[in-house]
Amino acid sequence: MATAAQWLEGARPRTLPMAFAPVIIGSAAAFGLGAFAPLNAALAAIVSVLLQIGVNYANDYSDGIRGTDNNRVGPLRLTGSGAARPQQVKLAAFACFGLAMLAGLALVILAQTWVLLLVGAGCIAAAWGYTGGKNPYGYRGLGDLFVFVFFGLVATLGTTYTQANQLSAAAWIGAVGTGLIAMALLMANNVRDIPTDSVVGKKTLAVRLGDTAARLTYVMMLAAAILLPLFLAYDYPWVLLVLLLVPACLRPSWLMLTGKERGSLIPVLKQTGLINLAFSVLFAAGIVITVNLA
Description:
This protein has helices at residues 4-10, 17-32, 38-66, 78-81, 86-111, 116-129, 143-164, 169-192, 194-199, 205-209, 211-227, 246-258, 266-293. By secondary structure, it is mainly α.
């Protein structure tokens, strides 16, 4: 029986900034449109966090029963380590998905955005299909696209839409930015796992690109995300606060480019997650300050 601490580690808390960042950005974009709704934002955050944890448990279960995590380098995996039975981990994943659906339904009813019911169903299906089922797309190098679409575009734009019933350039640019950083986090994880993923036929984008190109792609994703807000400088000049993150990006980028030992890449995950959270806070602050000073 896994301990509470092991279940917490299995939830992969280093990835949770990916869940909060798009909600912060999407809510700030709604504020810029004069339509910030705190309750809607809170429900969106609950949905996003539960989906993130559910994806993590589902990935733990699916990779564990396939043997992908048998000889991995990195934090504990509940199934692969034998700390929890596979069915327990699977149940935890579906419990998170179920709770996310309930919170999402409450948000849709509150915001009267019924079309998002279909989007929510697509999120659940995509979350399970990442590494679950007979033909998981995460094993074909499409996991990065899933992260960009659902933890970048869908989460951010959905947050804005359920508050403002419209979208803006700030919402789109923020969505792309946080999506790119989330992709960078996944890339760092997958670069670390290239040797073990290759053996079991898990052809992630990192495996397909190769070690060197995958590391360079991580740096390019971070750079593009930090520079994108420049397109908003005319309407929201204070959004350029995100450029303060440039120094914070240097260390994880250096580790990715030079770290030969797979274990040396583990800190990059936490650092990238914190960069995503900081990006969202500075982006949101830039919008709020600009609006208040107008």
